[in-house]
Automatic annotation (TrEMBL), chains A, B, C, D:
This is ThuA domain-containing protein. It holds the Pfam family ThuA. InterPro entries: Class_I_gatase-like, ThuA-like, Trehalose_catabolism_ThuA_prok. Residues 3-218 form the ThuA-like domain. It comes from the Bacteria. It comes from Litchfieldia luteola.
Amino acid sequence: MVKVTVWNENRHEQKDQEVRDVYPEGIHGAIAAFLENEDFEVRTATLDEAEHGLTEEVLNSTDVLLWWGHIAHEEVQDEIVERVKQRVLDGMGLIVLHSGHFSKIFKTLMGTSCDLKWREANEKERIWIVDPSHPIVEGLGEYIELEREEMYGEHFDIPAPDELVMVSWFQGGEVFRSGCTYRRGNGKVFYFRPGHETYPTYYNVEVQKVISNAVKWAKPTNNTKPVYGNAKPLEKLDGMN
Amino acid sequence: MVKVTVWNENRHEQKDQEVRDVYPEGIHGAIAAFLENEDFEVRTATLDEAEHGLTEEVLNSTDVLLWWGHIAHEEVQDEIVERVKQRVLDGMGLIVLHSGHFSKIFKTLMGTSCDLKWREANEKERIWIVDPSHPIVEGLGEYIELEREEMYGEHFDIPAPDELVMVSWFQGGEVFRSGCTYRRGNGKVFYFRPGHETYPTYYNVEVQKVISNAVKWAKPTNNTKPVYGNAKPLEKLDGMN
Amino acid sequence: MVKVTVWNENRHEQKDQEVRDVYPEGIHGAIAAFLENEDFEVRTATLDEAEHGLTEEVLNSTDVLLWWGHIAHEEVQDEIVERVKQRVLDGMGLIVLHSGHFSKIFKTLMGTSCDLKWREANEKERIWIVDPSHPIVEGLGEYIELEREEMYGEHFDIPAPDELVMVSWFQGGEVFRSGCTYRRGNGKVFYFRPGHETYPTYYNVEVQKVISNAVKWAKPTNNTKPVYGNAKPLEKLDGMN
Amino acid sequence: MVKVTVWNENRHEQKDQEVRDVYPEGIHGAIAAFLENEDFEVRTATLDEAEHGLTEEVLNSTDVLLWWGHIAHEEVQDEIVERVKQRVLDGMGLIVLHSGHFSKIFKTLMGTSCDLKWREANEKERIWIVDPSHPIVEGLGEYIELEREEMYGEHFDIPAPDELVMVSWFQGGEVFRSGCTYRRGNGKVFYFRPGHETYPTYYNVEVQKVISNAVKWAKPTNNTKPVYGNAKPLEKLDGMN
């Protein structure tokens, strides 16, 4: 059974009644709720817990970590970011959602600014699937339509994705690479764009389907980890050395 | 349950005692035997059967097709090649083994010559895993060592793989991109290098593990197929048109 | 000096006054005209010439071939397609424009159906640059806006591009991967979406800039061609063979 | 004229007579010497200079930066690393050589550990070209052979390269992805493996050719930089917002 930890900054929910109205159990609560319907073992963790809820013990027993953050990226301690990064390189899957594009963990794994255009204007987003063969889009149609979302526009300053799975169309005239996979070390990373805190995006069953599929896709590959450092020759070096 | 069809040219087995000694049930028989130990439904098909054993009915009920051919690529009818190609574009997985690099189906899906260097000199091959996060290498160590194999060397005239999973070292001084994934339409394609007919390569448990993993990886993604052709606008075009 | 051949089907221009009004010298004439302002040696060739204007001699002295076709793809002889393909694999650059997505040469190099959604509705296209580091977008801004174009929409059934340079937004609600690079053999391939025959797209200076840049990018790499076939070992095989 | 800065840690040269014997003008001196034969404007900079020789002024007038470091990666100030990174994201090319795989600048741009296997055993390296179409291998043959080099072996913990250009074979039984391109922001990055301080690798004319080609490939693309942050809609949002 895949062990999932849903991490949320959980600050909008404490400060803004509007957000609390949409996500009374927090964004993490809403995400955990639909993941529990799958064959996953689901926990949540939030910024204000000790060690942000991401102790060594929690991370070591996490197969896939989901990350939602927005207004408090800077409050995430560098030590915890480093710990999460090591776990990804060691094999843990990581799914970064929406405004998590600017999280320390995503930026450090990407090596770029991860900057983009944005606009809050209640506009329509249509997320087109450009790789229908990918397991992350299992069970979906040709696109996902969200009546109201925040706009994110190109240029999105990320490395070229290993696989580009989805591209968004926005009513205001922009496009965006919305579903991107990366491999880092032994771990798999998926960035998925939608999910502004004032919209009920995480109740959309197709968005939920993408996230559930991504958890399955991102679970660790169980094999012998590579060995690094000084290495003896595997072949005889013929006395020339 | 994933439905697997193992296709083999099955000509060496009929002509060469040496090959029959290694693969008394044919290469297809040896591959089918270890795949049957997995949770797969396994059939075989060979060149000399009617329609090469690849009728519409067989292909339509195949999730993943494995392909081994060598000396009779030209005897495979173009019509059957086209049929297999359409099934791949429609979602069927395809695993091309060893000398299948020169099969019509692989060449037509790649768009290149698929040519390479080769040598039969009983030399050692060491297949290094360069993407340890990939599900195709689940359960493996850092490399697979084959005491005797045919050499295939670069330049291998293929499109850059979507994912490069394995690279071979050969005793005689060459390297080769030995595990390559591609997506074509709704289907997934995996090329895996080892498997010369005079060596017991398909009895190697690590080689078997790669092929079993590849079957799981290549199975079709179950979603709505894209619609092509003339399309009505999804947004109002404001009378300007 | 880069030697460029602009190939055009040149049928719309003969049949439709509307197209002739836009491109009195043919689409090939319009493209050749702006390429001649660069440091290129430019020729044109069309379908109705002997061997479609693509003799061995012409191709052997072509560094980069541009391809525009639409209503007569099937009239292009298979033998000429094969000849062009061999030249690409041998190093010649190929730039496929707009409806050339359905040309025999593009489909055979891609290995997929190259199908897509389309609509002629005089709508706006905005081509966003998603890879600002790429030489093909030298001298451009963040996007190219075309007031009226034919719509092409996803899913575009191509292999994942080696490099995705541009993505289009369409007024009617679709997106499209509009600038895609591929490497095939020793040759480079660029697909560029815009250019419907009834619009003055090839007079747009930014579209011209992309095509000129693409010619420079696609020119052959001058090196020793790989050798294929049976190969002697480069290292001593220690008597074990 | 492309402005090149060759950065070298320059510590082995001060401490080890053996290295000084091979590179009397320092590794930076040897690299600058052959680059000056090209149409480049070449400078050098070293660790022990003020700001490691990488002032804002120097970086702002550098098109392509080469980086060689080994035993003093930790002495490179984080502030300077950040400055170099910003210049890369802004468009400057970066060529990372050999043991620079463990430099702070390469690790921060990659997002992974960049770890590998290594061995100093005077063994043979054969660097195979796997993408003959790439401008970085212009003028080369099928491989570069180095009689004596340090071994670097897989797994090399890097993101999958955007383009894999070269793969090394080592006598002792390993392979390595030796020529790797990446795009980060507006900048291009090339990693090139060979160049251990005790071997005359940078006098090898084919190695020199690769580095010169890489400088040309990595030079900045001159275009409008993307704009990030809050963005007004480009299309009318129909009063719904």
